[in-house]
Write a structure and sequence with these properties.
Elements: H1 3-36, E1 40-45, H2 60-70, E2 76-79, H3 87-101, E3 105-109, H4 112-116, H5 121-137, E4 141-145, H6 155-172, E5 175-177, H7 206-217
Helix pairs in contact: 2-7, 3-5, 5-6
Length: 224
């Protein structure tokens, strides 16, 4: 190999080294950006999270974002609530949401519409369990938000429905809000805190919903 070939080879090695160095620097920069990104709290819910019948920005999820901001807590809230959604719908939507948002925390607020539609409790249980596991596999901590059924559904069914959430939380060792509507639906005259349909809490009830979620959520939030 003559001197010209050696010079060409040297240029090629130098160029390759420069490209490799540039790629390494770019990868390090990308990793740095990812590590410094604001952690996401992903709320996957139904109309109780999606501000059904409420002014935009007045629901408990929006109030959560406002509280985090006011307390200068490093987290961003993504509201993926869809009115009328069931646990099956949430389960089917979750993988794409996890890929898109890469959340640090996933709040699962689903199941009420399953009961209203008469779906088997075993289906609700399996869907919630699957959502918890999918979220954990994606590296997120999970908060499961429980619901209860009105007395007219029968005491036995109400108890079995309540136990769906406690069972999943216990078996999966995940955080639990036992009843999102505590202090709203169980009042002596709950109609004051519900919209005219008597199913959806009104704007005045939203701070109470947040108060029910907050104590279980804060231990899951990423530390500064």
């Amino acid at each position: 190999m003559n001197r010209r070939h050696f010079n060409a080879l040297g240029l090629l090695v130098a160029a390759t080294g420069s490209i490799g160095s540039a790629l390494a620097q770019a990868a390090t920069h990308t990793a740095s950006i990812a590590s410094n990104a604001t952690p996401v709290i992903l709320v996957v819910g139904d109309s109780l999270s999606a501000e059904y019948g409420l002014r935009r920005g007045s629901g408990w999820v929006a109030l959560l974002a406002q509280r985090l901001s006011s307390q200068k807590m490093n987290a961003r809230v993504v509201n993926a609530g869809v009115s009328a959604d069931t646990s099956s719908g949430g389960r089917s939507r979750l993988p794409a949401l996890l890929r898109q948002h890469q959340p640090a925390v996933v709040v699962i607020e689903l199941g009420a519409n399953d009961a209203l539609r008469g779906l088997p409790l075993s289906v609700t249980r399996d869907n919630l369990r699957s959502m918890v596991r999918l979220s954990r596999e994606a590296g997120a901590r999970v908060l499961l938000v429980g619901m209860e059924m009105p007395p007219n559904y029968g005491e036995r069914y109400a108890q079995e429905f309540r136990e769906v959430f406690t069972q999943v939380a216990r078996e999966e060792k995940t955080a639990l809000v036992p009843f999102l509507l505590k202090g709203v639906a169980d009042l002596e005259d709950p109609t004051k805190l519900f919209q005219s349909d008597r199913m959806h809490p009104n704007e005045s009830a939203q701070p109470t919903l947040l108060a029910n979620v907050w104590p279980a959520l804060t231990p899951l939030l990423p530390k500064r």
